[in-house]
Predict the structure.
Amino acid sequence: MIRAAGDSALLINLGNEIDEEINERVLSIAKRIEEEKIEGVREVVPTYTSIYVYYDPLIVSYEKLKFLLKNYLKEKPKEIRGKIVEIPVIYGGKYGPDIEFVANYNGLSVDDVIEIHTKPLYRVYMLGFLPGFAYLGGMDERIATPRLKTPRTRVPAGSVGIAGKQTGWYAIESPGGWRIIGRTPIRTFNPNKKTPSIVLPGDFVKFKAIEDAKEYEEND
Amino acid sequence: MIEIIEAAGLSIQDLGREGYKKYGVPVGGVMDRYSAIITNYLVGNDRNAPLLEFFMGELKLKFLKDSIFAVGANSEVRLNGEKIEAWRAYIGREGDTLEISMPKNGVYGYISFQGGIKCKKIFGSCSTYPQAGWGKYLRGGDKVEIQYSSKKMLERRELPEELIPKYEKEQIIRVILGPQREHFTEEGIKTFLSNKYIVTEESNRMGYRLDGAKIEHSEKGADIISDAIPLGSIQVPENGKPIIMLADHQTTGGYAKIGVVISADIPKVAQTPIGGKLKFKEVSVEEAQRIWKRKWNTLQNIKRYLNGEIRALRVKINDESLLAFVEEL
């Protein structure tokens, strides 16, 4: 269950599928380890099914840390209470150049795509890949669409997209191959804030279709 | 203040962003920590002081103010046209020009200034990460500001020759296998550990893509449920060709990792040029941590030596010439 990932990180693997219960346990134990402030531990990073513990091998050895961490696996995990975060999205038009493709690909209308995309409560499983990028679970497979064959060199920050059975948004501008269906006017990632990301693992996301960005711009 | 006249892959870096991986923030920072730390120590800086990193020189800078500096690269270095040494601290006077050639071995080089470079910190670091709009690569005409310093040279200002890092075009890179070893067949692991892999042109500060014998995946395949990527992770996608994740790598990814390069050998990987060859060798975690401890001790000894706290002696043991740091008790 615990294995080395190089000489200054280890991982605790808690399962082999994308599953809410497994991820909850990951988040709960990760939080517990983080709060414990074990000497030599630099960072604790929860992922879908594993907890990565980054450490300083000059302070704590692999064997010792492994021994210490085993204790936390026996405890009953505390419940993580995620918050619901509403993400307003302007769908289609210049903000969502691929929405028609997504609709045609799946034999739906653009309105259907918006309805299907805004319906679920998406669970945030982890953050990673790029700053502030949230891996969401729970997209309806009726709007699943393969990635672009040639990725765009620039996707603006806030762009909401679909890649295969996944959905999410670009928290910062970056190159990317997701099918872009809309854009959120709110800033979801801000390095100057103590908690830089507006969503954290364990939270839930609800997309809300909006017509224009005015009210959000004023509030930002 | 320093003015950049000619630049090559030039950026401000330090040891990167620690503590924000859980928000998806890459660590970033210098590609070769060992060289960068020594270059900082030469001018009396902390190891984490922001400095300049360049890639494959030619470089020309102009001092707009006096500054103590050192160049950490195996390049030819000229101050106002006169040849000076790399791995040694000098004072650059207002109006002086500094020219640095392409490194004779290795690809990344460092220029430190006493006091360190001034910058706007993001997540506690000055490291340039243009993908997120955090700083940009420097070009001719750009200026960088240096923090105030006493402009006093250290007791010693030169790295002993034995300790100058030299990088070959063919390297043996030690790795710890895993964490997704079971995604590879025994044959695949054997292929990985017994062949040389070439650094391809599709390599950058995020990672080096290698070419060579195809590594066979087991029935579990090349994809995993996305998880975290420690520095030096070796991902093997479907095509069976390894990718080594370096300084600017993303924090998570979905390819199976066959191994992770040990901390002590990451500079060797980073300094291998396109076309250079890497051969992987398996070591245990315990061994890797011992090697790192030794390397770290060497760095601390270099710092103490430069500060004049300890001496370095050249000794001959069984006909082998060695450098020993000695401390008078």
